[in-house]
Specification:
Layout: H1 6-22, H2 26-37, E1 42-43, H3 44-51, H4 55-68, E2 71-76, E3 79-86, H5 90-118, H6 126-150, H7 154-163, H8 165-175
Antiparallel strand pairs: 1-3, 2-3
GO molecular function, one term: DNA-binding transcription factor activity
Family: Belongs to the GbsR family.
Domain HTH marR-type: 23-81
């Protein structure tokens, strides 16, 4: 069984712990962390051995990571097995994760809120309808902002992130 350097092992374990707080399987996250930190693509059996996880669990987890677009299959000369590698650019990883969470969580919520706010069944109290409309309005605003940010070229996106609190100070002067 391959041994991981202590820092890599701690990161893989931490990644798994954090994932459970986000509603993601610990094994899925640990496999992702291992692939992200690896200097080469890894075959499923090596992933299973390294993490001491059942091969079937690794296979299911790899499919989930592929479904998210976080890893891809690659081939290694002289080896007939599938190997897996993670996206390596952290900003690209961030964008893929945010996009998938939006698609899986926000989009269905917005669709339901649109449906609920378009109906006037007479039984829903006015204050509840108002809160649902307010929630829908906020989520639609957030979605529009996200789509604008998602379309930014990589260097501009990074420059925007680096501006940090300067934007807040600028807007406070403009509005106040």
């Amino acid at each position: 069984m391959p041994t991981l350097p202590p820092v890599v092992e701690r990161v893989v374990l931490h990644w798994g712990e954090m994932a459970t707080r986000w509603g993601v399987s610990r094994t899925v996250a640990q496999i992702h962390a291992l692939l992200y930190l690896s200097d080469r693509p890894l075959p499923a059996d090596e992933i299973a051995d390294t993490l001491s996880v059942a091969r079937s669990n690794v296979s299911t987890s790899l499919k989930e990571l592929q479904g998210w677009g976080l890893i891809k299959i690659t081939h290694v000369m002289g080896d007939r097995r599938d190997h897996f590698e993670s996206l390596q650019d952290i900003t690209q990883l961030f964008r893929v994760i945010v996009d998938e969470r939006k698609r899986r969580e926000l989009d269905p919520t917005i669709a339901m809120l649109r449906e609920w706010t378009s109906q006037d069944d007479g039984a829903t109290p006015a204050h509840v309808r108002q809160k649902l409309k307010s929630t829908l309005s906020f989520l639609e605003l957030l979605t529009r902002w996200y789509e604008d940010m998602k379309g930014l070229p990589h260097p501009i996106f990074l420059a925007l992130l680096k501006t940090g609190a300067r934007i807040q100070r600028f807007l406070t002067k403009e509005i106040g």
